[in-house]
Amino acid sequence: MKVRTPVILAPATAVIVLGACLWLIVFFHSPSQFIAERRLKEFTEAVNYNRPSDIYPLLTPKLRSLISEEEFVQNFKKERSYPYLTPLFVYVDVIDFNEEKTEGEVQMTVASRLPGEKMYVDIVFKDGRYYIDAFEDIADGTFIEKFDRL
């Protein structure tokens, strides 16, 4: 006796797989706390381990329009080389989002010799990704002015 399999099984499986793929695409390209936290983890690791070339693509398009990646890397290294600056190591404390989770302010603790030092950056959702608005002084070159004050 031959066993017949329903012909509808293959198209139904294809529809389920296609639906799951579309859901994943929408999920990972929509604003969410989960996606923002993953992006901030990338950012903090790049900052903490002094990898400016990994920071650059995470910056907002506006900041990247001010400077090339090579120039950003040079400025970042120069800024961090000042003898009185401790290594920059940050931890995310709080993300304060707007209702749509498309913009927010991130409060970070800076691990340094000054207890309670905080760093604040903005996070924005644009073109399906989160970007960090940080290090504007490095991008626009004004970081050099702080050396005059130290």
Helix and strand topology:
Elements: H1 9-28, H2 33-48, H3 52-55, H4 61-64, H5 69-80, E1 90-97, E2 103-110, E3 118-126, E4 129-133, H6 136-140, H7 145-149
Antiparallel strand pairs: 1-2, 2-3, 3-4
Give a written overview of the molecule:
- This protein is α+β, with helices and mostly antiparallel strands.
- The protein has one domain: NTF2-like, domain 1 (Nuclear Transport Factor 2, Chain: A), CATH 3.10.450.100.
- Helix content is 44%, strand content 20%.
- It has seven helices and four strands.
- It has helices at 9-28, 33-48, 52-55, 61-64, 69-80, 136-140, 145-149, and strands spanning 90-97, 103-110, 118-126, 129-133.
- The chain has a four-stranded antiparallel sheet, covered by helices on one side.
- A hairpin with a 5-residue loop joins strand 1 and strand 2 (103-110).
- The longest helix is centred in the first third of the chain and has 20 residues, at 9-28.
- The termini are far apart.
- 18% of the residues are buried.
- The model has no long low-confidence stretch (mean pLDDT 84).
Mean pLDDT across every amino acid position: 84
Strand content: 15-25%
**What is the total tally of β strands?**
4
Any idea what the CATH superfamily is called?
NTF2-like, domain 1
Strand line-up of the largest beta sheet: 1-2-3-4
CATH class: Alpha Beta
Classify the fold: give the CATH topology: Nuclear Transport Factor 2, Chain: A
Total DSSP helices: 7
Shape: elongated
Q: Termini separation (Å)?
A: 90 Å
CATH architecture: Roll
Q: What structural class results from the helix and strand content? A: alpha+beta
- State the order of secondary-structure elements, H for helix, E for strand: HHHHHEEEEHH
Low-confidence stretches: none
Question: What is the count of distinct domains?
Answer: 1
